[in-house]
Amino acid sequence: MDLKEKIDPDKLPSHIAIIMDGNGRWATSRGEMRVFGHQNGVESVRQTSTAAAELGVKHLTLYAFSTENWKRPKCEVDALMNLLVLTLNSELGTLMENNIRLKAIGDLAHLQKNCYAQLIETIDKTKDNNRMDLILALNYSGRWEIAEAARRIAAETAAGRLDPEKVDSELFEKYLETKDIPDPELLIRTSGENRISNFLLWQIAYAELYFSPKLWPDFRKNDLYEAIIDYQNRERRFGMISEQIKPVTDK
Ligand code: IPE
Ligand code: IPE
Ligand code: MG
Known about the structure:
Elements (H helix, E strand, L loop, with lengths): L14 E5 L3 H6 L5 H22 L3 E8 L7 H17 L1 H6 L2 E6 L7 H13 L6 E9 L1 H17 L10 H5 L12 E4 L18 E4 L9 H12 L9 H4 L6
Parallel strand pairs: 1-2, 1-5, 2-4, 3-4, 5-6
The structure holds 3-methylbut-3-enyl trihydrogen diphosphate (2 copies) and magnesium ion.
């Protein structure tokens, strides 16, 4: 039985988020420039997106560029931005064939102009696709997102348009970048690093975390299946005890 068949379609996460990490190490271990790793990571994005869409996952969020990544050497940042533009262009066919709608979260207005323009164009061209949303986190940082939500809420209350008493977590979520997207049930990070690196801090409150030793350019459909099977074998208690969440079995 292949791995895909071991996945229970009734227990599929509706939203999977991935911290795609390890491109640089993948390249340097081959004596290549770091950008070679980023280039090879595109195939992993293609495989993971199509595998998730085929399974029936509704939302896939990929951490593509963090706000902190601007601190990298300029040549690497430029190479990443160029690759983004090229990939958005070249992968339009894959997105259309697989009926995938592109979205993006992050401080998009501060991306380089050509990246922003290409991003908006691809988002627009795929807007009527409805099998799965592929959400790119670009110039994204969880703390930025939360602080931005707080700033906008404060502005609304200062203007008298929002009663501070009404601010609760349900309202707060409406000010986040992910306002129409359910929280990820499964968060995957590749490359063996066991940290979150400022990704979806609010949204992963109850996500199952899965750390894969594979470097991102080596990540393939079967690695995604393995992560989902692992997730499906966990008990998600949300603060309750086991007995409260076990399905009632027929006597
Ligand atoms: C992830 O791979 C891609 C981005 C952060 C843009 P890295 O570039 O972080 O690769 P490592 O972690 O240095 O190997
Ligand atoms: C996280 O990876 C950001 C992305 C995958 C886009 P990093 O490689 O930037 O994270 P750190 O620096 O190891 O925490
Ligand atoms: Mg890294």
